Amino acid sequence: MSYKEIMDEIINNLTGDKQKDLAYLEQQCEKYKDSEYGLEIVRACGREIANLLEDDEMDEIINVFKNRELDIHSVLEEVRFNQYKKNYDKALELIEQVVQKVETLYNDGLYKEDKVSKFFCFDEVMEEILYKFHKKPKKEVRGCDIPYAKIYMQYGSLLIDKERWEEAQEVLLKALEWNPCSSHIIFELSETYKHFGQLEKFYETVIDTFKYCFTETDLARCYRYLGWYFVEKELYDE
After folding, report:
1. Are the CB atoms for 218 and 183 separated by under 8 Å?
2. C-alpha distances in angstroms, 116 versus 7, 34, 35, 86, 190?
3. Closest among 171, 127, 120, 129 to 147, alpha carbons compared
4. Per-residue pLDDT tens over the stretch 112-162
5. What is the pTM of this model?
6. Pick from 216, 235, 141, 132: which is nearest to 181 by CA?
7. Among candidates 143, 150, 177, which has minimal Cα distance to 75?
């Protein structure tokens, strides 16, 4: 059976009795967890379970995620402060603790891409709209509560400050996987292309970034980067 057929069968077997349906959905999670579509089915059943919970029960779950997110954001604020003060070693120590924590959650299966869904950390709705318009994804686009893109962006920025350019490029590419429409991540990544003299890669990246820019500031920076490239190539008329 396909994923859709299995989920249709599960949904059709729901009775409308909350306690029976909760027990049934938990049974289906256990039944299919090791199957071909195990991860996808468990996640879909989890969404159905969430729909059955009362508001106060859902609030408890939401607060767990909010507290975790707030905790991460508070550490990121401290990282940014130390980076501003040029306390790079302290900032790196803090951000690497966060990276280790969120990567452990990811490796445990949280927000991993499956055969049905792919998870992103878009900063605003327009980024998601642009992604869907330009990339035409076949999988369902889902958000996540952990700001992976911001975490890797901050980490990459610090690595640039420490002149650890290869590591910075690798980390910023990870950030871009989580938010492929973030001009801020792309601009930071472009700095590594400049450093390594990868001018054509730099040019291609800047040109591609135009389609994701929707603020005056980002457009201006795109044109400034393009101007820098033409100067480096001695294409002064351009």
Report:
1. yes
2. 12, 16, 14, 43, 32
3. 120
4. 888 888 999 999 999 999 999 999 999 999 888 889 999 999 999 999 999
5. 0.73
6. 132
7. 150
